[in-house]
Design a protein that fits this description.
By secondary structure, the protein is of the alpha/beta class. It is built from 28 helices and 39 strands.
Length: 968
């Protein structure tokens, strides 16, 4: 829907539109019509005003009523309401409306902002008087909180946005009384607040408007481009004031930028540090809090009356200026329940809200000390150096106790995908203890049963600091029986071979070859392998790190299980500051998913039999290798070590920063999968599976395949046209029969279906779906049974024939798909939890998040504990021979059948080709105490120890994977 050309009301009275001075683009920020915002706008002192209101479609009628009322009062020149369709970007619509506006000035206004009387004329005057001024904000006052504190309206929320030494955004002097002399000073800033921003229309157009794909960062991006185009700045007008009603605006606006910055998603150089300059200009000392938050010291920012020191406003300001766990928990205790839920969600979504791992603080303190010296900030430098001298005390007396308090309060009680800071807490509170009970190097019997391991490192022009750290991580191994085999791939930097020679000279376990010609990573890795005579080999990139116990764990597994030929571990990422993040906790080996990565170790004989790495697959050479090796291995020859043994370096040239940094990776991955399918005799094509480096196989349908589609109906409604069309397409690809299986007598009636579907109606066989599935299977004639809820609709790209083809595989018992409801994921397979019960992984997720949830695995074919009965394919003979589902187990019948079959070596698989929509509201089937008890008695231990669950993980309340912080 194009809102700008929709049927929305457009009414004009009074002067010709060409006489309009200012166009206000008002964006609705909530679910209510912006009455207060619009009434305040017309009192803000501009007569020649046109208003365009962008609102959700359900608000169109009340917004139009507001516009008509204002037009009757002759308060506006014109009023247009633009209803937005679901998912439509308001910034994209603003771009279009500005292009057609006739006024010289533009006001971007959120409905959360209430302009005070006559606030617009001084803003216009300021913008007109200074050609270097790119835009003007009013002083934004805090709108008051649920506590009802009237004094909150006199407190500054946004005087201007400044950047600290790390490039983080802060609201200057947030909480300062509006009557304080510092609030009256005219200042300049690098960026402005998008919620109430006055601009020249020509500047907006020249800058290209918003970049809507940047979403919440589009406002800051626009400001940076506006300032660059004018070689100017922004300002806040002291004579103009407005109330910002969004209580959490500073948290959300600053927190998003700062979190992305902290996670390496933004360049710190985008903003130059100016927080300290503002403080110095105001004669204020600039220093640190114990948690390394920089800012002016001794500025009166809390409410003045002593009776308000324990108020919600005081708690809020304490949290904003000293964001530490005690302050956060105190604020949460005071917030009303509705706001408390929103605040907890912000904590989880924005990593800058919660404590970081200790390494982050030590790096930060060192940088602050350096910055303080450069900028002659004596207090800042002294406090940073003092902090570094007592860093361990901070870790043990403040950081870890603070994290424990947050864990006890339930802040971390959600999935890793929804709260990345859980990993910081786990590193501090759990990882060091998780190795308890594991062998130490001094306790090992280093005889023949403990193998020597060759670490293969191809090297080409790395960052010298990263290379040194990689080499040192091998030297620091707790297990000493290793060879480090280095192959310099004709580096053009003379420093690289010099460093390698120096390391080789200091330790006889280091072997080095300097290649005369560059052959890229595959050939260089093979050159490193040629140096080795160890029975095992592990790969290490020249800028990554091994965990200190990495080789010890590999050696232990190889010694305990001599049949092993391939071992892989968990991994995470590490930035230039040595801060770890983005863990990847893997499951037991799944060839379809093939999620192995780092650290990968091979029996050297197996590696040589595969002829090492192949040229032409650079970028995915390790993936190609693992495919070629594991195609020939038995399950007992592959092991997963559920520990993080590898730290993948984040930098601009690495694929950790995204495949866009190395676009050839995509083609190499596709080629590797295609070659694997050919070796296995599959007639298949490789197709993209969404964003990132993800692909899926589409397999040809074998001739003569007979498939019985069983439509399980619990209501007297016919299949939707979309499902009928999908089945007609299926009938063109294989021999199809369709069985209408009612669960109840009321579902007997159905509409006539096309004859090519070969429909047969069966007698009712419910009321439970498990009973109906068994009855229909006995009546079916197909080789493959495809059970479908009769209410389903196929989504774009749904290919049910792929489920039928996969069901023919002898290693699979069930092949399922994904069921969506109301735009959210309902069922993408059941996974095992530490409770002994299965759970639906990522229930409630939206489609746009799938590439980032669970490391993108939901986009791919993958093993699961069980699939949903609403869409699953099985071999008929196999299903009947094993008695199908047990209705006595209710919602656990799917999992019970799948576990029975898994015990015979037959797994369950979810195919990305099965994507279905379930209209209406699906009700979760209730579980009886007896069913739960029986399932746990028989299968609880199997589920708890299932290889699909990494031992470090458990199910979170929001249906994702999380780390166990209970009892820390």
């Amino acid at each position: 829907m194009n809102a700008a050309s929709s049927t929305a009301l457009s009414a004009r009275q009074g002067q010709n539109p060409a006489h309009v001075l200012l166009t206000a683009a008002v964006t609705c920020a909530g679910r209510e019509a912006p009455a207060a915002c619009l009434h305040a706008l017309v009192e803000a002192g501009i007569q020649d005003l046109a208003v365009v209101c962008l609102c959700p479609a359900p608000l169109e009628v009340p917004v139009l009523a507001l516009g008509r009322a204002l037009l009757r009062r002759k308060a506006l020149q014109s009023f247009v309401c633009l209803p937005l369709a679901a998912g439509q970007s308001p910034r994209a619509v603003v771009n279009r409306l500005v292009a057609t506006a006739a006024s010289p000035f533009l006001l971007l206004l959120s409905s959360d902002v209430l302009l005070e009387e006559n606030s617009l004329p001084p803003m216009l005057a300021g913008l007109n008087s200074n050609a270097a001024l790119a835009g003007v904000n009013p002083l934004l006052l805090a709108g008051g909180r649920a506590s009802g504190n009237a004094s909150a309206r006199r407190r500054l929320c946004h005087l201007g946005s400044v950047a600290d030494s790390r490039g983080q955004i802060r609201y200057l002097y947030e909480g300062l009384d509006v009557g304080h002399p510092l609030a009256a000073r005219r200042r300049v800033f690098q960026i402005a607040h998008e919620a109430a921003l006055l601009l020249r229309r020509e500047d907006f157009m020249a800058a290209g408007g918003f970049q809507p794909n940047l979403e919440a960062l589009a406002g800051i991006d626009l400001c940076l481009r506006l300032a660059a185009a004018r070689k100017g700045f922004f300002s806040s007008e002291p004579a103009a004031r407005a109330v910002l009603c969004d209580s959490f605006d500073p948290w959300k606006s600053c927190g998003l930028w700062n979190s992305l910055l902290q996670r390496g998603r933004l360049d710190p150089a985008l903003l130059r540090p100016d927080y300290h300059l503002q403080a110095q200009a105001d004669g204020l000392e600039y220093g640190l809090t114990p948690w390394l938050v920089e800012g002016p010291r001794n500025l009166p920012l809390a409410p003045a009356p002593h009776s308000l020191q324990n108020s919600l406003d005081a708690a809020w300001l304490r949290w904003r200026h000293a964001p530490e766990p005690d302050a956060l928990l105190h604020l949460l205790r005071l917030l009303p329940s509705r706001e408390r839920g929103a605040a907890v969600a912000l904590c989880r979504e924005l990593p800058s809200s919660l404590p970081r791992v200790f390494a982050w603080y030590t790096h930060c303190a060192a940088r602050l000390a350096e910055f303080g010296g450069q900028e002659k900030l004596g207090m800042l430098r002294e406090q940073a150096l003092e902090w570094l001298a007592q860093a361990r005390r901070f870790q043990h007396e403040q950081l870890r106790p603070g994290m424990r308090a947050l864990a006890r309060a339930g802040i971390y009680a959600c999935s890793l995908d929804n709260a990345p800071s859980i990993y910081d807490a786990w590193l501090e509170l759990r990882e060091g203890n998780s190795a308890a009970g594991q062998p130490e190097a001094r306790h090992l019997s280093v005889g023949r049963q403990w193998p020597e391991i060759a670490v293969l490192m191809p090297v080409w022009n790395p960052n010298p600091a990263f290379l040194r750290a990689a080499l040192d991580s091998v030297l620091a191994q707790k297990y000493g029986r290793w060879q480090l085999c280095l192959a310099d791939d004709a580096s053009t930097s003379p420093e690289t071979p010099e460093m390698l020679r120096a390391y080789a000279a200091q330790d006889q376990r280091i072997r080095l070859v300097i290649r005369e010609r560059n052959g890229h990573i595959s050939q260089a890795s093979n050159s490193a392998l040629a140096l080795s005579d160890a029975p095992w080999a592990a790969f290490l990139d020249h800028d990554d790190l091994l965990a200190p116990n990495a080789l010890l764990e590999v050696a232990r597994h190889a010694a305990e299980c001599p049949q092993l030929r391939f071992i892989y571990s968990d991994e995470d990422k590490i930035d230039a500051a040595g801060v770890r993040r983005t863990p990847i906790f893997k499951a037991a080996f799944d060839f379809d998913l093939h999620f192995t990565g780092h650290l990968s170790s091979y029996a050297a004989s197996t590696l040589r039999a595969a002829n090492g790495l192949r040229r032409g697959f650079e970028g995915s050479q390790d993936f190609d290798l693992s495919l070629r090796v594991t195609e020939k291995l038995k399950p007992e020859e592959i092991a997963h070590i559920p520990r993080i043994l590898y730290h993948w370096r984040i930098h601009a040239e690495s694929t950790t920063s995204g495949v866009a940094s190395k676009p050839y990776v995509l083609e190499a991955t596709r080629k590797a999968l295609e070659a694997s399918a050919q070796r296995r005799g599959l007639q298949a094509t490789v197709e993209p599976a969404g964003k990132n480096n993800f692909f899926r196989l589409k397999t040809a349908v074998p001739p003569g395949l007979r498939c019985s589609v069983i439509l399980l109906a619990d209501a007297p409604r016919p299949p939707a046209p979309g499902l009928v069309q999908c089945l007609q397409e299926l009938a063109r690809q294989l021999q199809l029969e369709t069985l209408w299986q009612p669960l109840t007598p009321s579902a007997l009636s159905r509409a006539d279906l096309p004859p090519q579907l070969h429909v047969r109606s069966l007698p009712p066989a419910g009321p439970h779906w498990a009973t109906a599935c068994r009855a229909a299977a006995r009546a079916a004639a197909g080789d493959v049974l495809l059970f479908l809820d009769a209410a389903l609709l196929p989504l774009e790209g749904c290919r049910p024939e792929q489920l039928a083809v996969l069901a023919l595989r002898p290693d699979l018992a069930v092949v399922g798909g994904c069921v969506w409801q109301g735009g959210r994921l309902w069922h993408a397979g059941l996974y095992p939890d530490a409770t002994g019960l299965p759970f639906p992984l990522q229930r409630g997720a939206t489609p746009d998040l799938l590439p980032s949830l669970c490391w993108g695995q939901l986009l791919l074919a993958r093993r699961v504990l069980a699939a949903s009965w609403r869409c699953m394919a099985v071999r008929r003979e196999d299903f009947l021979r094993h008695a199908g589902f047990d209705p006595a187990l209710g919602p656990l019948a799917e999992a019970e059948y799948a576990l029975r079959r898994e015990g015979e070596g037959r797994s369950s698989l979810i195919s990305p080709w099965g994507q279905w929509l379930l209209p209406g509201q699906a009700q979760e089937e209730s579980m009886t105490p007896r069913a739960r008890q029986d399932f746990l008695r028989r299968w609880g231990e199997v589920v708890r120890n299932h290889g699909l669950r990494n031992p470090q993980l458990r199910a979170a309340p929001d249906f994702g994977w999380t780390l166990d912080l209970n009892g820390v």
